[in-house]
Amino acid sequence: MQEPLPEKMTVRLYHRMKSIDLTGKSSGLSEQIAKEQFVIFMSNLLKGNADEKSTIIMRIISKTEGPVKCKQIQEVNRQLNKRVLGRQ
Description:
mainly alpha, about 0% strand, about 60% helix
């Protein structure tokens, strides 16, 4: 059985999914991700061109819009490599 994603990566994905606005629906105080938020997130991630996908990845890397630092990209890359490829 593979290990789960690192906590930092999980938190980044959670915040990105949670940030999806479901217009006309009350988000309430729930900390759960709505099914619609998950579907929209995955749909956006899996379709589109590189430009559209890069926007999603940038939002996972950084909570703020704008340029990201090399260290931030390296950290996400390291976490993904460690998880997916089993490398440090």
